[in-house]
Amino acid sequence: MSNDPLQPLADLVVKDGVGLGGLTPALRGKALALVWAGMPPTVMDERAVNVALKHLLAGAASFIDTDHVELRRWLVDAGWLWRDGFGREYRRVDPGGVPEADRSLAQALAAIDVGAWAASQRQAREAERLARRAAWQARQGGPA
Q: Which end of the chain is more exposed for a tag (fewer CB within 10 A), N or C?
């Protein structure tokens, strides 16, 4: 078994149509950690948060089947994104303040470009899939 804190997330980002509510709490935390890591670590208004989340849902978090509004609520409710009482100011929670179960993952994600990492995971999985298909076709005597 791998000690890589990113491995469970790597298995998740290659999927499509993942609903946050259908994930186990542990996997949901990993998905939210990826989104958290892709958010700017600055004070943002709601419009800026929405823009950032839309960008993530089109890229690194494209495996999540939701819209930016629901995703923003998940982040706030789960403790990944701080929101003032009026909804005018948002901040990404500091790494030490994220849910304890995902702190090591958050630290690992904060050190990388999550968009590039997610894209590389998807490319690697597609290459594996194509290699398996070529091997199967070769065993069947067909074209590779």
A: N
92 closest CA partner among 18, 42, 136: 42
Listed by start position, the domains of the chain span 7-140
Asked if residue 61 lies in contact with residue 109, where contact means CB atoms within 8 angstroms, the answer is no
pLDDT digits (tens, 9 = 90+) for 27-69: 999 999 999 999 999 999 999 999 999 999 999 999 999 999 9
Cα separations in angstroms, 112 against 16, 107, 123, 128:
22, 9, 17, 23
pTM: 0.87
Q: How many CB atoms lie within 10 A of CB 82?
A: 15
Is there a contact between 115 and 38 (Cβ–Cβ < 8 Å)? Answer: yes
37 with 106: CB under 8 angstroms? yes
Please state, in angstroms and rounded to a whole number, the distance separating the CA atoms of residues 53 and 59: 10
Distance CA 33, CA 28 (A): 8
Q: How far is residue 130's CA from residue 124's CA, in Å, rounded to a whole number?
A: 10
Report the DSSP beta bridge partners of residue 18: 64
